[in-house]
Amino acid sequence: MSYELVPKRLELLKTALPGLKRVAVMYRAGDANADRVLKSLAEPARTLGLTIVPGVVSDAAGFERAFEQFSQQKADGILQAPDAFFFQHAARIAELTVKHRLAAGFGVTESARFGALFSYGPDFTAIFRRSATLVDKILKGTRPADIPVEQVNVYELVVNLKTARALGIKLPRSFLLQATHTIE
Q1: Residues 37 and 110 reside in one and the same domain
Q2: pLDDT digits over 22-41, tens only?
């Protein structure tokens, strides 16, 4: 569901910042799914009156250059393509979003904890609990092939209020009411 949630993050970013105009979308060089992400954002961006500013990062050393490029292109917010590479560098990326005054909507809770404005993605605690139930069934003799495939159905919106204050953002009540958790 990682790729399917990127348009929802764009919508949440617009809800959080009604004056949002330009959104940077960061992806890793060579990511075969980058086109998929950019295409999935085309129609929602048009509907929301947003311009998408794509930005490629080759390695960790390229983050600073990418963020400088986003600033030069007058991006107001930032999303990223789902990629373990970005998760690995979540703290640095969150730091750069605040430094360059970009409101960030990312996919994993840790990003919000590190300083991104918000994260929206699967509730991993719920996933692990459900996994434990499935393991229990297998240990009690149920064949794995007999267990139906399940899709994530619990998502969480984690909002970093400290970052909002640092960026001078007054978050709308409609956005805050959707939050599962807030970080003070």
Answers
A1: yes
A2: 999 999 998 888 899 999 99
